[in-house]
Amino acid sequence: MQRSDGRALDQIRAINFELNIAPHASGSVLVAMGNTRVICGVTIEEIVPRWMKDQGVTGGWLTAEYSMLPYSTTTRKQRDIAKGRLDGRSSEIQRLIGRSLRSVIDLEKLGPRTMWIDCDVLQADGGTRTAAITGASLAVTVAWKKLLEEKKIASSPMRKLIAAVSAGIVDGNAMVDLNYEEDKAAAVDLNLVATEDGEFVEIQGSGEEATFTQGQLGEMLALGHKGIRDLIAAQRNTIALLTVTAPT
After folding, report:
1. Is residue 118 part of a domain?
2. Most CB contacts within 10 A, which of 29, 81, 98, 192?
3. Residue-number span of the structural domain to which 32 is assigned
4. CA separation for the pair 93, 80 (Å, rounded)
5. Does residue 104 sit in helix, strand or coil?
6. What's the CA gap between 164 and 187, in Å, rounded?
7. Quick one: angle between helices 214-239 and 128-149, nearest 10?
8. Each residue of 120-139: pLDDT tens digit?
9. CATH code of the domain covering residue 74
């Protein structure tokens, strides 16, 4: 099957990371996967949520926010503040981002601090949630570098890098990293979050008015794992430019 952009079924889109895109953030990355572009910024506050104090929970906390900017799609997307509430999709995605990062971070090593991860979609062409997670993993790594340089922490709290990618069944074919047109046509849609050593963090999959077999699920997972390896390699190449050793 020939994909619209000429990629092979197991090939992710061109990936690019631009570090320190937001100078006032502790760490920031502009991640581009094909035509999808997301800014991931990290802010660190020297406080923890009240519930942690009330419950006697030690260490720090990490939370995420996600939004699609009004001009990120072909027709203007209304801001959540204009509707007076966060839409269900955005709420679900930002919880996913937070869960994903907390799975690989030692919050005790963070200390009594809150790490905010803000992911803002500049341009949407499918896979915005997966691009946000992949970019956030790098943005957090940059933030650790600054904390280490400032001697606020003794070692990086990040146990492993993570990345995320989509997969799906389109016209009976399993493929990875779907763009918008492919996602719209997909009979089955899957999002995979995994660590650099291949351990799952989260799998989200569903049939879009269709069913899928165990064999097709296996195909999508295999494609997703290969995509994760490719994304981690790209992250590592970017981290190599930093002066502080990446988590091992």
Report:
1. yes
2. 29
3. 15-239
4. 14
5. coil
6. 20
7. 30
8. 999 999 999 999 999 999 99
9. 3.30.230.70
- What's the maximum distance between 2 C-alpha atoms anywhere in the chain? 57
Let me know if residue 92 belongs to a domain. Answer: yes
- Tokens 């341009």: give the residue: 123
What pTM, to 2 d.p., does this model score?
0.92
Long-range contacts of 168-175 (CB under 8 A, 24+ apart): 168/220, 169/210, 169/212, 169/216, 169/220, 171/1, 173/1, 173/9, 174/9, 174/216, 174/219, 174/220, 174/223, 175/1, 175/3, 175/9, 175/10, 175/223
The encoded tokens of residue 37 equal 């572009």
* C-alpha–C-alpha distance, residues 29 and 137, integer Å: 9
In a domain? residue 3:
no
Tokens (6 digits) for 175: 């493929």
Closest alpha carbon to 31 in 148, 115, 108, 122? 122
Nearest Cα neighbor of 202 from 132, 101, 107 is 101
User: Could you count the other beta carbons within 10 Å of the beta carbon of residue 171?
Assistant: 10
pLDDT in tens, 194-221: 999 999 999 999 998 799 999 999 999 9
Tally of domains in the chain: 1
Cα distance between residue 29 and residue 31, in whole Å: 6
At residue 110's C-alpha, the angle toward residues 109 and 113, to 5°, is 145
Under 8 Å between Cβ of 109 and 155: yes
